[in-house]
Design a protein that fits this description.
This protein has ten helices and twelve strands. It has about 240 residues and is an alpha+beta fold.
Length: about 240
């Protein structure tokens, strides 16, 4: 299914500001920043709309401007597995760019989402002309690899409650991709938290109720408000 809407090339100042809030983009050389913004098209997706499927051909890089994109798979029975979730100002799509392969996971809009899409031809043309800039594409991939190692380690070492706290803190910090202070409100459902942590909805609900009783969070439909960020950050730090 094609995206809901697709703009002409170039990003508006407000969109550039969103991307500039991201640590990866903010530390790129200015010419590369300008090239990405100049070549980007703005894509809008409805909630549930698929951006690409596993095995699809590489179409370029994507930067999150609004909303959330999930990465994972769905089995024949309709059960979802969520390997990751991207929100502004995350970028993704670099794996297929690096190895020349196809998309590794299905990507779909968890909420209405807006993205900056830099077509494959444009980013390839730039990298061919500026091969030293490949290191920044590699840095984007390596950061996600580090996050993945942490998630695997947490699954083997920590309780469900500890993993939930770490997940909430990671989302608030955009997993280290945003220089701004952690967000105090997360646009995510308990069901989605369950699929991200491989926990049942009932288990997540019980854990969230316990965190509410401790005045650490407040749950609303599709949202989690972090009431005591300092305590949550301290709990997360104690797990290292």
């Amino acid at each position: 299914m094609p995206p809901t809407s697709l703009s002409t090339a170039g990003l508006a100042p407000a969109h550039r500001q969103v991307l500039a809030s991201g640590r990866w983009f903010a530390h790129l050389p200015s010419p590369l920043q300008q090239a990405l913004c100049r070549e980007a098209r703005v894509v809008s997706l409805r909630a549930g709309e698929v951006l690409f499927h596993r095995g699809d051909a590489n179409t370029g890089l994507f930067g999150m401007l609004d909303g959330a994109i999930c990465f994972g798979a769905v089995n024949p029975a309709g059960r979802e597995f969520v390997a990751g979730r991207a929100e502004p100002p995350h970028w993704f799509g670099e794996v297929a760019l690096i190895d020349g392969g196809t998309r590794t996971h299905r990507a779909w809009a968890d909420t209405p989402a807006t993205l900056a899409h830099v077509p494959l031809a444009a980013i390839t043309r730039w990298l061919d002309a500026h091969p030293a800039h490949w290191q920044y594409i590699g840095q984007l991939a390596v950061h996600k690899l580090r996050v993945m190692f942490d998630v695997v380690e947490d699954a083997g070492l920590h309780t469900a409650r500890e993993r939930l706290v770490r997940c909430l803190v990671g989302l608030a910090r955009a997993y280290g991709q945003r220089d701004a202070p952690p967000a105090d409100t997360l646009r995510i459902s308990q069901e989605r938290l369950g699929t991200m942590l491989a926990l049942s909805r009932q288990t997540v609900n019980e854990l969230m109720q316990a965190l509410e009783r401790e005045r650490l969070v407040e749950c609303r439909r599709g949202r989690v408000r972090l009431l005591d960020l300092p305590r949550l950050l301290a709990l997360d730090a104690s797990l290292d």
